[in-house]
Write a structure and sequence with these properties.
alpha/beta, 6-stranded mixed β-sheet, 3-stranded mixed β-sheet, 9 strands
């Protein structure tokens, strides 16, 4: 094999390995923030309190949307954003949540079916706005209400 061919093969193998590693990481977490409220599940871990609330993200014949888009949670809950169809992110914009602190950064894009992004609800009592950055103009937004 010539030098250039070996270099190309090595580069292809490295790229394939990095892709495999990246695809294996399908769950992201944020220690602050919150969202969701349709499906509530107890985590079953005694050391952790709170429910896991699943919010699904879609792009289909009905549009681009979160299901549910109105979420009610309590401190200690975890909001699990789960990709169903399309490519989406979750963003609690500081400009749209004036005076609110501890907001998580925008998530990476969820690209693989059933990929998730977890947000632990550490927010103070109140109402919080979130959106999918690429689809907000299509109405992909929601609200989280944190109760006492």
């Amino acid at each position: 094999m010539n030098q250039i061919h070996r270099h190309n093969v090595r580069t292809a193998l490295i790229c394939a390995a990095l892709f495999a590693i990246a695809c294996g990481k399908d769950t992201k977490s944020a220690d602050t923030g919150a969202t969701a409220s349709a499906e509530r599940k107890s985590e079953g871990k005694q050391e952790e309190k709170g429910d896991t609330i699943v919010v699904e993200a879609y792009s289909d014949a009905n549009g681009s949307y979160y299901k549910p888009s109105e979420v009610v949670a309590e401190k200690g809950d975890v909001i699990r954003f789960k990709l169903k169809l399309g490519v989406h992110n979750v963003h609690f914009l500081p400009d749209s949540n004036p005076g609110k602190t501890g907001l998580p950064p925008a998530s990476d894009m969820l690209q693989l079916p059933d990929q998730t992004y977890d947000v632990k609800v550490n927010f103070e009592k109140g109402r919080y706005y979130f959106q999918c950055d690429p689809h907000v103009a299509l109405g992909m937004k929601g609200h989280l209400t944190v109760k006492d």
